[in-house]
Amino acid sequence: MRRFLLFIIVSIQTVCFSQNIQVDSQSYSSQELIEEILIDSNCIENIQVTNSIGGDFGVQDKSFGYFNASGTTFPFEEGIVLSTGKLSNTVGPNSTLSDDDAANWGGDSDLENILNESNTINATIIEFDFTSSASQISFRYLFASEEYQEGSNSTCIYSDLFGFLIRPINSQQYTNIALVPNTQTPVKVTTVHPEIPGSCSAINETYFESFNGTNVPINFNGQTKVMSAIANVIPNETYHIKLVIADEQNYRYDSAVFLEAGSFQLTTDLGADRLIATGNALCGTETLQLDADQIGASSFIWYKDGVLMPSEMNALLTVSDEGLYEVEVTLDNNCVSKGEVLIEYDTNPNVSNTVLIECDQNLDGLTFYNLYNAASLITNGNPNLQVSDFFLSEPEAQSDINAIQDSDYFENTSLLQIVFARVISQSGCFSIAEVMLDISSETIDVPSMSQCDDDYDGVTSFNLNDITAEIESQIPINSEVYYYETEEDAFNEVNALSSPFINSIENSQIIYCKVINNNQCFAIASVQLNVLALPILKQDESVFYCVELFPESIQIEAGLLQGVESQFIYEWFKDGTQLTNSTETISINESGNYTVNVTSQVGCQSTRTIIVEPAEPVEILEIIIEDGILNNTVTIIAEEEGIYQYSLNNPSSFSNNNVFTNVPSGFHTLYIKDKRGCGILVREIAVIGIPKFFTPNNDGYHDTWVVDGVNQQFNSDVKIVIFDRYGKILSSRFVSGNGWDGTYRGKAMPSNDYWYLITTQSGKSFKGHFSLIR
Fold it and tell me: What is the pLDDT of residue 7?
């Protein structure tokens, strides 16, 4: 104790005028830090430090030690601090980043195991044994960290780790007592913080003190409020405690835990504070019995708000008023165990009895209610109140037993039946409200809604908001209107339809609208939806107008496939300009885009377009004849491909093929037809054919050698020259009707092969030979 007094005397001038904590890593051994600073009590005995580990920063610094905060705003005047960085870097102001590392500074497996974490490094540890005279010990601490980052989502994600691990000396099973009060949640940055907008909600914010600016006594970005670590122990049995803090994942952004000097004491457990903020305050006239009894207790002294309660000298104290209650329990060994509890009272919720109105499907006075629809009326719209359950009787509601199981689908058993709602405030206080179940007698007249089909399938889209607009005059202001496919869905308020709605039954369908006023059913009514048929027309088409017919006209039609022509209205347009025609069929003699709108008597309209294209007379460029060969061909070259059909010698059978092969020699007729209906062009052609032999024996067969396809009309310019094998010209003539008779100057030529040369003025020529056979 002398060393402590010397430190105060030496440093008192500095402490008094400093706004920051002061630290000392040299004046106290680990044993002295625990026994003289943290505990300093004769009722905690057999104190023995068994292990202390920290970062190696040389002889002048450690990662743990003594701190003094006298004269600062720090909540502890003095105590010990364990850090994941240098002790010297815990000192304010908060102007630098505490971000220290040291060689070979490992983590702690016990901390990892109990927190279900991994990859710890830079662990600072002090372990000690002790025995207690009482059945409970506690000490006060706060946690501070550079990982508290105001406005940053890193606060939601990252945290260093610490724990106060306690176990009986003969057990290896630790219990962590560094917990968020009244929970089993370890204290970390990620478990104690306010809301980080856009990143995470507040968690245990009641125990968060602040994000720190620059002018604070410690060098950390944020800190928790002061909390107590509490452990139940068996008196006079030895326990082992490990105080440990470590970086997680890496050495960056250090943290520290500060333990208040002299706070490691015997304590008496009076239970958790009963606070409005934590939702466990006492309610109305409720009482609470505090129990300070424990092993070895000999006397009890009670205080309320610091004032002695002279008539209260027993272990039990009945509380009926809010305040801070404290007890001092003297044990048989003259040790004193202290305890305190803060009691707050909250008023019972302000609730209103109400009537819940629902619609009756079969008018028997019985229906199904979602009892929670009355919640806003019961609580008067107070968002801090909650209807927890409904009950058939008030005593059951008061006792919170036999709650109605299907409160969202409850069927009444009698007209104007009353059920009871239990309403709870955030502090857990409750009130009971009556809910009378009534039946709506309102009706509304909903007009049917008709909509033209859009694609002939009996299905279309309905804007349900248009129906709502139609019935607004029949319903209360600010009512809500919902639509359902079935009446059952409307009563149960499930599967509400969205707008626009596409009917699921072709042509005609009944749906149901439900009007809700003040969260109660005003009325349910059926709605008839009708899909009106469109005029059914032929498909759009293209037709041709043969310009050579002008000014003659052709007819085009609207193409009505069903119904009577006179029951529809026709509007015709040519190239976007409306015509005076108003009949199903019109006569036209001009090309263009013709559109007709056909409207039924119920106003549904279909549109058909007829494209009238001009078609010129049949026109061909060339007829190519390859003749005088074994496979004669005829090819027609037209002005436009694909619009004509062709035939050879047969005006009743046409094909798209413009090439004819294996055409016999002689004279033929070509027919060229316009597919668009603009006439047939007829052309006569001749195909030259050369005989291979002839037999001039006057038997009437092959008596002369005659070239086919040659006469005065076709190939009249053909010159035919016949030679013998020596080149002697035996015959030379132009077109001849009888051909060569096999004589030369009246003398019959012998059987033999003879040669020919056939030429035309166009330059076409044929050469070859034939046989004369006698």
Answer: 43
